[in-house]
Amino acid sequence: MAGIAVSASPAPAPSFGRSSVASRFSPVVGPSANFRTQVYGLRCWITAKLKLRRNLQVRAEDKVHDWLKVTPLTKNITSRDARLAYDFGGETANTSSDTLDSSMDEKSLMHLKLSPSETHPPVLKEDPVLFDDQPESAASLSIAVIGATGELARNKVFPALFALYYSGFLPRDVGIFGYSRKTLTDECLRSMIEANLTCRVEHHENCDEKLNEFLKRTYYIDAGYDNKDGMAKLNSRMSHIEGNCAANRIFYLAVPQEALLDVALSLADSAQTTQGWNRIIIEKPFGFTGLSSHRVTQSLLSRFEEEQIYRIDHLLGKDLIENLTVLRFSNLVFEPLWSRTYIRNVQVIFSEETATEIQGRYFGDYGIIRDIVHSHILQTIALFAMEPPVSLDGEDIRDEKAKVLRSIRKLDLEDIVLGQLKDNSVKVDRYTKSMTPTYFAAALYIDNARWDGVPFLIKTGIGLMKNRYSIRFINSVS
Q1: How many CB atoms lie within 10 A of CB 274?
Q2: What is each CA distance from 299 to 77, 287, 370, 427, in whole angstroms?
Q3: Per the record, a Pfam family (predicted)?
């Protein structure tokens, strides 16, 4: 279980041994019930700050439906700063400022900015395709999951989409489209994902009814990742389900890194809508090196605006990370204590008990540093150590996180410990014979006024004693 642990008495900094990774931490501050009550209150505060005005008990379902609709774009709009009228209670949204947040991972899709003044490439013309299914109502929002039969899509993306649908964050007439290279039918995909769909909420009213509705709105298209004809087929199927509605489209790319650009460029040419906005969501890693990451970014920007691209780090959706931000900025009592004056060291621990990933091609290529440290761990440290942002707008938070990352001192070899999991199984994968590290420990230092001299102790690895993601900080000696 992830949690924030605080020690009220001085304690020595832990060693980097395996025993310290497996040790238990003291419980969170105060009784568990009090902490849960505080977190609930803090979440209400942060929700108000983010202007997420969603009262599902008062808002009728048709209101949620209108909330996600936009008026069709006119052909003469080409400027990114053009002002477009939306059906948000009569308000007009500026493409550079007004936002609407919504989540995926149970939370990640909640951060899609609705600023659709993009220019769209022409959609390839194809012969009309006839479909047997006819939806009861046209879709006002279409979500395509590319790589729908993969583990990520089956275990994470589709359950997250259903959680959003059940909670009312998606319109009832949403269209969910699975796209993969496997030859399947709509019913096959529905049967495949149904086992992982549960009502993971406090109240389970109408769970079966909602589940059946969601599955009926789920469709499947089989084609290649780099096949423009396949993407044109996806576009035809989406257009058929959307009917005459000016629907928006979200494309979630749950595909291998090497297929990312082929998929993104193909759908940019053949599957975007010209009647609403388009969004593309990609999972980390965003390249193998700095050069390849730059190439991926530039290739995406050649077909999409930056506001259309969403990069997902699913670990940041965990309660630990969300509560960390709320805990810091909604409690004024912590502000004077959150510095080198009162904190001796900060420990960030991420461990996984399972070691199956090391058998795979992905982890064998990337290793623990590229896979976890430079993304999950550094993002966590940046959120923990950043200065209070001007606002809780995404741009302001990114600015403060960037300042922290630029202030991190270059690592010395004596501050790093690397390790590799020993494979005792009979079947030895070729990647376990490489020098790819599976364990990483280091002491980072942030050279700024708030954290000067405070070590940030990182310990992360796979095949360890237990699954854990925790942040612990030790008080300075008084």
Answers
A1: 14
A2: 24, 12, 21, 40
A3: G6PD_C
How big is the CA angle at 413 (ends 350 and 21), to the nearest 5 degrees?
A: 25
The tokens describing 432, both together, are 């376990």
Tens digits of per-residue pLDDT, 11-66? Answer: 344 443 433 333 333 333 333 344 444 444 545 444 454 444 444 444 444 444 44
Residue with tokens 């300075």: 476
Q: Is 142 helix (H, G, I), strand (E, B) or coil?
A: strand
What's the N-to-C CA distance of the chain in angstroms?
Answer: 31
Q: CB-side exposure of 186: number of CA atoms within 13 Å?
A: 14
User: What pLDDT digit, counting tens, does each position of 52-90 carry?
Assistant: 444 444 444 444 444 444 434 333 333 333 333 333 333
Other Cβ atoms closer than 10 A to 431: 17
User: Annotated catalytic residue: which of 111, 120, 240, 376?
Assistant: 376
Closest by CA to 477, choosing from 4, 7, 5, is: 7
**DSSP codes of every residue in 345-410:** EEEEEEEES--GGGGSHHHHHHHHIIIIIIIIIHHHHHHHHPPPPSSSSHHHHHHHHHHHHHHBPP
Tens of pLDDT along 442-460?
999 999 999 999 999 999 9
Cα dihedral 123, 126, 128, 131 in deg (nearest 10): -80
Dist. CA 222–CA 180, nearest whole Å: 5
Can you read off the two tokens belonging to residue 51? 């202007």
Identify the bridge partners of residue 475 per DSSP, sorted by sequence position.
343
DSSP for 249-304?
Answer: EEEEE-S-GGGHHHHHHHHHHHT--SSS-EEEEEESP--SSHHHHHHHHHHHHTTS
65 in catalytic set? no
Q: Global pTM?
A: 0.66
